[in-house]
Amino acid sequence: MRILIVGAGIAGLAARRALVRRGFSVKIVERNPSAGLGGAGLFLPGNGVRALCRLGLGAELFRLSHAVNAQRFHDERGRLLTSVDTNRYWRDVAPCRAIRRSDLWQLLDDGMEPAECGQVIDLSNTGLGCRVTYADGRTENVDLVIGADGIHSSVRALAFPQAPDPEYVGNVCWRFIVPKTCSVDEWSVMLGEDRSLLAKPISKSELYIYADMSAARTAIGNYSDETPLLPLFGSIAGPLRHALELSRDTVVHFAALERLKLSRWVENRVVLIGDAAHASPPSMAQGACLAIEDALVLADELSARARVDLALSFYEQRQKVRADWVHRQCAARDKMRRLPPAVRNALLRFGGGAIYRRNYSLLRKPL
User: Fold this and answer.
1) N or C: which end of the chain has fewer CB within 10 A?
2) Which residue intervals define the domain FAD-binding in the entry (predicted)?
């Protein structure tokens, strides 16, 4: 079977590795020659680490990443509301880790055939296969196209023309990495009334910072990679104040947060994975995790079933349950974070552990 993966991000590289390990012939194309460069940091809860271990990457992942032993939630004045022992919660799954996105990309890419540079501009999709047209005029016939090209997927636009557009969730964010010069030694978040500031070490010497705040859609244009962050987040920064000052001297990634909820991920011989199928805000840190899970489940189903249509259907059934769960938990978490501070703080102080356990309960279960 000839399989074409469109998109060489985390989802596409994971799918290629999972399929190659199952003996499939796979080609991957990417329109951005710098796809593996840049990005900031990633938090990988236990289900994501478990998925990477199933891809045979466990030992190298642990060498490249940093342990996340606890998740600590603080109020706007820096007072601890709740602390979750992640080793205890995820002990039957896998330990949580933090890693540079570029390191995870390279880990997934190592030992594989390089992606080809190409942009898909047209797609003829039937129950027997697809005819793909590239921007340079080339055409190609394949048995299956896997759309792994992100939240603004061109494959989705071509194969699912009636699909809804991504939806702005009301928050903008900034991500960056700075030298670790403060006392924060575990995943820690400071929660303000309409904004939050999160830090987690990704190595012994580096700190990943994520900052977000509520913003009307009409105000998105007021912010960018160059926006000074200290005036926006200084009031809740506490020990992270110096990290905000250092943001002036590093690469900062700005984004308006969006979500994508589709009723189906399969159309004949086209299937969507990762953010192309189910992008969600980062509240649950499941973007990379679900993408890698998608890759494993899709490879499992294609290798277990003689009929491609049945394999794709079972993949969708299995993973859509998990993706829909993440969407619901993200919405609940974001709603709770924007409650009046006194109410939110009380909920986290007295019920934070129970909320966390519920949020991740489905994801602890095997694929």
Assistant:
1) N
2) 3-322
Nearest to 98 by CA among 140, 66, 60: 66
**In contact, 321 and 53? CB cutoff 8 Å:** no
Helix, strand, coil shares, percent, the chain, to 5: 40, 25, 30
Q: Does domain 2-166+259-364 have CATH number 3.40.50.1000?
A: no
Structure tokens at 80: 């601890």
Residue 3: pLDDT band by 50, 70, 90 thresholds? very high
Instruction: Please enumerate in sequence order all residues whose Cβ is within 8 A of that of 284, keeping only pairs 6 or more positions apart, or say none.
Output: 45, 326, 329, 330, 333, 359, 360
Q: For residues 29 and 136, what is the distance between their CA atoms, to the nearest angstrom?
A: 13
DSSP letters of 45-110? -HHHHHHHHHTT-HHHHHHHSEE--EEEEE-TTS-EEEEEEHHHHTTTT---EEEEHHHHHHHHHT
Angstrom distance (rounded) from CA 1 to CA 177? 42
Contact indicator for 152, 12 with CB cutoff of 8 Å: no
Mean pLDDT of the chain: 96
What's the CA gap between 191 and 237, in Å, rounded?
9
pLDDT tens, residue by residue, 293-321: 999 999 999 999 999 999 999 999 999 99
Residues 278, 323 contacting (CB under 8 angstroms): yes
Place of tokens 């342990």: 67
Annotated domain spans of the chain: 2-166+259-364
Is the whole-model pTM more than 0.90? yes
Can you name the residues that pair with 167 across neighbouring β-strands? 259
Query: 4, 119 in Cβ contact below 8 A?
Result: no
pLDDT at 34: 82
pLDDT band at 337 (very low <50, low <70, confident <90, very high): confident
Residues 121-150 have pLDDT tens digits of 999 999 899 999 999 999 999 999 999 999
pLDDT at 35 over 90: no
Asked if the model's pLDDT at residue 256 lies above 90, the reply is: yes
How far is residue 320's CA from residue 80's CA, in Å, rounded to a whole number?
A: 35
